[in-house]
Amino acid sequence: MAYMPLDKNRMYLDRNKMTKIYDLSQPWGVDTPLWPFPGARQDLIFPRGQYLGRFHKRTMTYTGTLHAGTHMDAPNHVLHEEEVDRARNGYSLNEIPLEYCIGTGVILDMRHLRDEFEAKWKTGFEDGLWYELKPSDFEAACKKDGLEIRENDWVVVNTGFHHYWRINNDKYFNYYPGMGPEVANWLIHEKKIKGITGTWGATDAPLWHHPLKEQMPWLDTAYRKATGKDPAVEYPDYEPCHRLFMQAGVCTVENAGGDIDLVTGKRMIIAAFPFRCEMADGGFVRLVAWEEGSF
By residue range, what is the domain housing residue 146? Predict the structure, then answer.
């Protein structure tokens, strides 16, 4: 009674007749790379409660951070409630307006940054390993593929660093080309976007985690050795882009990847719906894209 033989002759759904959906998400599960905070940290645990061989059904529970894999941050992750227009933009994950989570957008090609990084890594040019994105990088990527960032667009940035995911997590989390407050303010106030994501470990560049000697001490040591500069002076704030974007109501999704190379350089519809979890300061999303007008 609990076993149901498969009759493929009764299958009727045909994906070839449906709109192609591109999955820009990274897998989330066993051995998912996690942000490298110092000290002990809870790993992701997926114990089975019931299993098919005995109960004829499978149930599992999850213990771990909501900031794993491809996920959206909520304003209450980094902002006090008085710093947020809660009625307008929401505060916890379940309050983020769904209208913000879908829209037109561009997938920008900045994969040359990974090639440049890899060349410097191989030659030992340590001083140039970290790169902070500027408005000119976005403008150049748009010009290359004939794109423009429009008001209320989602912007997806492909730096190529998603190819390090699970392959070299040190490179992925410590050296990805990321954003600082200059480009965040430009995207918010000049371009007026409503969503931002990229192939990076965090919305802010790695060095914008002040004080770096406490948050990422190994990176503090590497930066000082390579540049002779004090990161506390050069990057004197903790995740400013997180706060700037979320105070403005801009959705931020971290760890894009998946099929992103297939749609890079295009204008598409972008969507990333968070689950409706009260008080959640972030949560998993399925970041997807499809051609405009295809439905």
Answer: 8-24+66-290
Note whether 33 and 293 are within 8 A (CB): no
DSSP string covering 215-282, please? H-HHHHHHHHHHHS--HHHHS-SBSHHHHHHHHTT-EEEE-B-TTHHHHTT-EEEEE-PPP--TT-SE
- Give average pLDDT by consecutive 10-residue segment, the chain, 295 residues: 86 94 94 90 90 89 95 98 98 98 98 96 86 98 98 98 97 98 98 98 98 97 95 98 98 98 98 95 98 87
Are 101 and 273 contacting, i.e. CB atoms less than 8 angstroms apart?
A: yes
Helices (H) and strands (E) in the chain, counts: 11, 11
* CATH of residue 145: 3.50.30.50
- Is the whole model's pTM more than 0.90, yes or no? yes
8, 17, 20, 66 from 13: Cα distances, Å: 11, 9, 14, 33
- What's the number of domains the chain is made of? 1
